[in-house]
Amino acid sequence: MLKKILKSYDYSLIAVIAVLSIFGLVMVYSASMAFAVQRYGVAPDHFFQKQKLFLIGAAVIFSFFAFFPYKIMRSTRLLAPMVMMSLLGLGGILIFGKVAGNAQSWYQVGGVSIQPSEFAKLAVIIYLSAVYAKKQSYINEFNKGVVPPLLYLVFVCALIMIQPDYGTAGIIILIAMAIILSSGMNWKNIFKLIGIGALALIVFSLALHDKIFSEERLQRVTVLEDPFKDELDEGFHLSNSLLSIGSGGITGLGLGKGVQKLGYLPESHTDFIIAVVAEELGIVGVAFVLFCIGFIVLKGIYIGMKCKDPFGSLLALGISSMIGIQSAINLAGVSGMIPLTGVPLPFVSYGGSSIIQLAIASGILVNVSMFANYERKFKAKQAQNPPAPAMSEPIRARR
């Protein structure tokens, strides 16, 4: 049986995740060398060494969740503590959290920063997938099958918005929408949810008008028109990002030879790491990153469509949508298509919380794929060729 299970793993998916993560480690080293010395006065490989430790831990966590049967996670004994821990983590950060970048979104534990909203994304995926899979028989009963699971989503997003971190809250809402659209719910209820969501957004915007539409946030929108017009102030991040992207050409300036990361491009190893990739490795490097991320997302969608278990199917679709949505928002922000939101690029950007959360998510995705392949390859064959019935003792005696 173990041999059959090992044969059922999708090794192409595992390989792409591993290669992209190692590529990200190399780019973190290249992007953070000058930043580490100039900003913190530490060794040039400071962030590289920390990311390397994160990746080693992530590999162990990934292996555990790749072997851990995902179906156990829909148990109430696991779901209830997960829900409570995510809410307590998000609530506690408002009291004990560290403020950075005008947001109180991190716990500082020694030299490591932990961002609970990263893990809240995964908690929402697991919870909504488990509950909507369990409610399949009455998924179209609005008050009983549709609304109750969304109360948890509302609490999570409210706690994240209070920090304030509207970008992460928006990503979680988009992920939830992807799961809802995949749950089998009819369009009547989906349109009801869209209407209620739009009304809630209007009320929320009016109630917090001064915070949401503050001068600083509005400048993030207006700067998109011409970031070079105010390149030393509001357009500083975006204009230097565009210079990095534009100077790379087809093959780039060469690994480690980028100029913008030398004090011009802020957060070069986190939110803007794709700009460093474009400058040093050109279109070729960016295409490699897009191919790997696209492969993971499309493979996740394929797994979700092929999996016969509703819980596994929604899990795969939710995880792949999370990776795809977050990647799209990061790339669009760095290239000036949408306002900057401070969202890291999955598997590539520096960050312990992000890489550990992705290790859990991708491990679950690989596990769902394994079970789907196992049931399709081996259980189907077993059902087609059942073993011959054992001969009864009386017949044996007569013979």
Automatic annotation (TrEMBL):
It is an enzyme of class 2 (transferase). Keywords: Cell cycle, Cell division, Cell shape, Glycosyltransferase, Membrane, Peptidoglycan synthesis, Transferase, Transmembrane, Transmembrane helix. It is a multi-pass membrane protein. It comes from the Bacteria. The chain crosses the membrane at residues 12-33, 53-70, 82-101, 113-133, 145-162, 168-185, 190-208, 272-298, 310-334, 354-374. It is found in: Membrane. GO terms for biological process: cell division; peptidoglycan biosynthetic process; regulation of cell shape. Pfam families: FTSW_RODA_SPOVE. Its EC number is 2.4.99.28. GO terms for cellular component: cell division site; plasma membrane. Signal peptide: none annotated. GO terms for molecular function: lipid-linked peptidoglycan transporter activity; peptidoglycan glycosyltransferase activity. InterPro entries: Cell_cycle_FtsW-rel_CS, FtsW/RodA. It catalyses: [GlcNAc-(1->4)-Mur2Ac(oyl-L-Ala-gamma-D-Glu-L-Lys-D-Ala-D-Ala)](n)-di-trans,octa-cis-undecaprenyl diphosphate + beta-D-GlcNAc-(1->4)-Mur2Ac(oyl-L-Ala-gamma-D-Glu-L-Lys-D-Ala-D-Ala)-di-trans,octa-cis-undecaprenyl diphosphate = [GlcNAc-(1->4)-Mur2Ac(oyl-L-Ala-gamma-D-Glu-L-Lys-D-Ala-D-Ala)](n+1)-di-trans,octa-cis-undecaprenyl diphosphate + di-trans,octa-cis-undecaprenyl diphosphate + H(+). Peptidoglycan polymerase that is essential for cell division. Belongs to the SEDS family. FtsW subfamily. This is Probable peptidoglycan glycosyltransferase FtsW. It comes from Neobacillus piezotolerans.
